[in-house]
Amino acid sequence: MNEPAFQDIARFPVIRYYEDAFRKATGVPLVVVPPEESTRRRSFGRWENEFCALAAGSAAGCVACLEGQARARRGVARQRGPQQINCFAGLTDVAVPVILRGRHVATLMSGQVFRREPTQRDFAMILKILAVGQDREWEARLRKAYFNTPVVTADRFEAIIQLLKMFAQYLADYADRHAIAHSTDEPAAVSSAKQFVQARVVEPITLAQVVAHVQVSRFYFCKLFKRATGMTLTEYVTRVRLEKAKTLLVDPSLRISEIVFASGFGSIPRFNSAFKQHLGMAPTAYRAALRSQLPA
After folding, report:
1. Which of 65, 123, 203, 232, by CA, is between 20 and 30 Å from 72?
2. 199 & 161 share domain
3. Do 21 and 61 belong together in one domain?
4. Single residue among 166, 194, 212 that ends a domain in this structure
5. Domain count of the chain?
6. Are 279 and 173 in contact (CB under 8 A)?
7. Cα dist from 151 to 28, 112, 122, 142, 155, whole Å
8. Whether residues 80 and 197 fall in one domain
């Protein structure tokens, strides 16, 4: 069986789905990073806290941010559990490991929030560190971004950690299933078919399309795919769509009808039937179970 590396995991579409759903649900960014420390500061992408992005643009801020991220990643690697760190500017970051078969294969990083209301005195101290060589326009932008940074209560921050832990476990399970389904001796036609499905999961997918893509006969492909995966192509497409739907259900702002079409099912009855058949519960019950794991 393949041992998934970070490079394999980083390509999973489910990561992009979850990063977006997590931001919508919590208001804070999420990024999935390699387990090893880096010599460069890791950006949180387009949803990164504006203050953090501006601070990292200064020489002193870049060094301090990198050191903070390194501490979080070292703590995760050592403790194999969630780690919180306070950066030089008083913001809190959190890191959660993804553990697969005892191996630390990735780290989820989030946060960039305050745990208490910042003060003008706090900002003045930060400005002394960061403002070297900067103009007044930059200082004004930094001030605005600093005081616009979200302030997160203890209960809400604990909810953020719980969501990260849930996704870390889900991602480990997903990677494990992916490794089992993609053995090293998997036929090229099967691998190509899976990639075709994953790239077009929200579109209607027919056996004829897949056969034309992999360029083998219909009979041979069906026999080959079933032998390699234990599933028919239709069953595999359904599984891929369900994985996407499960991730989208994390986002409380999405209606079930929106999730149905965003995951490629096309109809609510078909979605409800497939979900209950494979997971043993209705989508609404699954969403309620997710919410019950969070603090009130």
Report:
1. 123
2. no
3. yes
4. 166
5. 2
6. no
7. 11, 10, 14, 17, 12
8. no
Q: What is the pTM of this model?
A: 0.65
Q: What is the pLDDT along the chain (296 residues), one digit of tens a residue?
A: 456 678 888 888 888 888 888 888 888 999 999 988 788 888 888 889 999 999 998 989 989 998 988 888 888 888 888 999 999 999 999 999 998 878 899 999 999 999 999 999 999 999 999 988 888 999 999 999 999 999 999 989 998 998 898 888 888 877 876 665 555 567 889 989 998 998 898 999 999 999 999 999 999 999 999 988 888 999 999 988 998 898 888 787 889 999 999 999 989 999 999 998 887 889 998 888 776 655 44
Query: Is 54 within the bounds of a domain?
Result: yes
Q: Are 201 and 12 in contact (CB under 8 A)?
A: no
**CA pair distance 170, 165, nearest whole angstrom:** 9
Q: Which residues contact 95 (CB under 8 A, 6 or more apart)?
A: 72, 73, 75, 76, 82, 83, 85, 107, 108, 109
| CA proximity to 6, closest of 97, 95, 74, 94 | 97
Q: Are residues 127 and 218 in the same domain?
A: no
